[in-house]
C-alpha cells in the first residue's frame, strides 16, 4: 500500500514557487523526490562549472588544447542534461501525485 503526502505550510501558487516536498511512502521506506532531483541538479551544475573552468584553463597550454575542447563538449552536453533532469522529475511527480504536482519545474 502506498501513501502520498505533501509537506506544505503555505502554498503560494505556481507563480511564487509554492508547494512543498512530495513524499511517497512505500511501507517503511520513504522516497523524497524533490530532494533527490535537487541533489542531481546541483551535482550537474557543479560538473558544468568544473568542465568549463578546467577547459578554459587548458587553453593556456598548447599541449592541453584537445583536453580543453573535450571539456567544453562535455560541459555543453551537461547543459542539455539540465532540462532532462527537470522533465524526469516532473514526470515522476506527476505519476506519484496522479495529476499536476504542486511544485513548479523552474525551481532548479
Describe the structure concisely for a colleague.
This protein has 108 residues and is of the alpha+beta class. It is built from two helices and three strands, in the order βββαα.
Q: Give the helix level as a range of percent.
A: 40-55%
Counting structural domains, the number is 1
Mean pLDDT: 75
CA gyration radius, whole angstroms:
19 Å
Order of helices and strands: EEEHH
Count of runs of 4 or more consecutive helical residues? 2
From the spread of the alpha carbons, the general shape counts as elongated
Percent range for β-strand residues: 5-15%
Poorly predicted sequence stretches spanning 5 or more consecutive residues: 8-18, 26-30
Q: How many runs of DSSP E, i.e. beta strands?
A: 3
This entry's quaternary arrangement is single chain
SS-derived structural category: alpha+beta
Q: What is the makeup of the main sheet?
A: 3 strands, antiparallel
How would you describe what is shown here?
The chain is of the alpha+beta class and 108 residues long. It has one domain (2-107). It has 2 helices and 3 strands; from the N terminus they run E-E-E-H-H. The protein has a 3-stranded antiparallel β-sheet with strand order 1-2-3. A hairpin with a 2-residue loop joins strand 2 and strand 3. Helix 1 (33-58) runs antiparallel to helix 2 (65-97). The longest helix is centred in the last third of the chain and has 33 residues, at 65-97. The two termini are 31 Å apart.
